[in-house]
Amino acid sequence: MSDFNVGFVIFPGMTQLDFTGPFEVLSRLGTPPSLSAPSPFPDAKTHVIAKTRLPVMSDRGLGILPSCTFQDCPPLNLICLPGGAGVVDALADDETIDFIRREGERADYVTSVCVGAFLLGAAGLLRGRRATTHWAYVDLLPRVGARHEKARVVRDGNVFTSGGVTSGIDFAFAIVAELAGAEVAKAIQLAIEYDPAPPFDAGHPDKASEAAIALMMSRNETARANLRQALDNRSAPTSG
Amino acid sequence: MSDFNVGFVIFPGMTQLDFTGPFEVLSRLGTPPSLSAPSPFPDAKTHVIAKTRLPVMSDRGLGILPSCTFQDCPPLNLICLPGGAGVVDALADDETIDFIRREGERADYVTSVCVGAFLLGAAGLLRGRRATTHWAYVDLLPRVGARHEKARVVRDGNVFTSGGVTSGIDFAFAIVAELAGAEVAKAIQLAIEYDPAPPFDAGHPDKASEAAIALMMSRNETARANLRQALDNRSAPTSG
């Protein structure tokens, strides 16, 4: 069977865990941990794609080396967009949005983590879809023609969107189960000991204090305004 | 207050999520998300440390750019060792083990994720300690003088060790709570929407099928033999 190409598109100011989480899970499809029967899944190849091969810095200063560029990456079976404050500049970059549209239109799976959803949206890939994003930004989804569904991972057809940052890990297991079945997903889960035990239960607004939510919204006020403006500047997917 | 320097030591063949998870959490201490009162915590600076500044490839092919080297990194307040198959080669490298010993002996916190515990151990930092590591390797902990405690995150004095790969995220929140208090930890948890919802409950041997455990142990047979051999080759921390 031919390769299944998984591509993460990165850009300056992305939140690295948005894609390093799913990268860790999806890259393990490359040698399927089949149980009694061989995995029905072909070899997966993961690609980290950027405008150039120069290292790309995350919003918190981690440098990641792309493995290919918009020009030389293979056709993608799955495209994944991480989020981060850098989404604002990426939204203003026609080359990035054109690449997302080109690959997104032919990919088997179109996916995002956190505010990466707005990059899919700017490329016209969320029109008429149910979708999600980081909880503090869900009200902006209609600006790209999407309808918010309250869930950590939302599937609408071949489009998988997920919530803030760490939701990318849960999203990746949903993808693995879809591609290779539950047993393969469980084997990878055991391999990376994904048995989460957060010391606090405060990771969602439904569970957080009002003070913490207000602080987060206040700290994100500028980021939200910047994102709104960037989406207005690119109101139609063909405006670039 | 002076900076609090957090250093992740990376090496070829490390498992990237072992440190990108805690990096995402701990790097957010840099601008403490204080609530009503200012955070008692100083600015944290995160460093990604390697032998040279050349990109370091993970076991699954993700290239990470170090931010400093063993020679030019500042004294560390917290040192963190990720795991991965590359631990075997790192164990044979005196320069790496000497760096871990030097910084580990003066750091306020000595930490590891997954089989990174054996790098701390080879540097003599786990002698007489309760500790943990990836579930498939816990029987090897006595070889570095440690006693296995069954928990996702184990604290013994200033030494925090954690289980396989994804445990690093839970570990990081335990560290944040220790350094800056529960309210800061909860604010970061909300910011990265850490409200895990794995689609399966199979991330620990207690919850996995016998077939999945047997497969994992069989797939890790060579890795376990290599790790045992590397630990035997370096049986005393001053053997290098």
Automatic annotation (TrEMBL), chains A, B:
Gene Ontology MF term list: lyase activity
Keyword Lyase assigned: yes
All copies of domain DJ-1/PfpI, residue ranges: 6-177
UniProt keywords, alphabetically: Lyase
UniProt signal peptide: none
One Pfam family of this chain: DJ-1_PfpI
Keyword hit for Endoplasmic reticulum: no
EC number, as in UniProt: 4.2.1.-
UniProt xrefs under Gene3D superfamilies: 3.40.50.880
Name listed for the protein in its UniProt record: DJ-1/PfpI family protein
Biological source species: Kaistia terrae
